[in-house]
């Protein structure tokens, strides 16, 4: 299985970000922070030719469960969902939580949590398309 989950949308990156933020909330998650990499790099003198927005999203209940099971897993939190342009297309993508946590832990408990978070975040992305 590909460790990335990527979906294409016909929306502009700006509209996809707005719709993604709404979908995140509808699924019981929250947006902790949004990065506009094109703008950030431009402020440092570098031109990124395509839009790239990264949203840090979190479900507090799931995050608490992960950190209670293994505080060291804080390095994998929060989940990140990106909205970006590539090849003239607007894409919404993420690293699959199950793949990320599997690379860091063999815990069956964490695997179960990661699988649920992955189902949720895929649903968030699909509802955004």
Record the SSE blueprint:
Elements: E1 4-9, H1 13-26, E2 30-36, H2 37-43, E3 52-58, H3 60-69, E4 79-86, E5 89-95, H4 97-104, H5 108-128
Antiparallel strand pairs: 1-5, 2-3, 3-4, 4-5
Task: Describe what you observe in this structure.
The chain is α+β, with helices and mostly antiparallel strands. The protein contains 5 helices and 5 strands; from the N terminus they run E-H-E-H-E-H-E-E-H-H. It has helices at residues 13-26, 37-43, 60-69, 97-104, 108-128, and strands at residues 4-9, 30-36, 52-58, 79-86, 89-95. It has a 5-stranded antiparallel β-sheet with strand order 1-5-4-3-2. Helix 4 (97-104) packs antiparallel against helix 5 (108-128). The longest helix has 21 residues, at 108-128.
Which short descriptors sum up this protein?
globular; five-stranded antiparallel β-sheet; 129 residues; alpha+beta; 5 helices; 5 strands
């Amino acid at each position: 299985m590909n460790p990335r989950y990527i979906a294409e949308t016909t929306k502009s990156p700006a509209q996809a970000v707005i719709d993604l933020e709404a979908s995140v909330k509808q699924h019981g998650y929250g947006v902790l922070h949004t990065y506009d990499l094109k703008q950030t790099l431009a402020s440092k003198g570098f031109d990124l030719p395509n839009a790239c927005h990264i949203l840090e999203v979190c479900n507090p209940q799931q995050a608490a469960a992960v950190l209670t099971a293994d505080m060291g897993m804080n390095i994998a939190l929060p989940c990140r969902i990106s909205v970006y342009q590539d090849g003239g297309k607007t894409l919404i993508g993420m690293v699959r939580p199950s793949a990320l946590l599997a690379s860091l832990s063999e815990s069956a408990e964490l695997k179960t949590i990661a699988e649920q978070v992955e189902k949720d975040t895929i649903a968030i992305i699909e509802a955004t398309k």
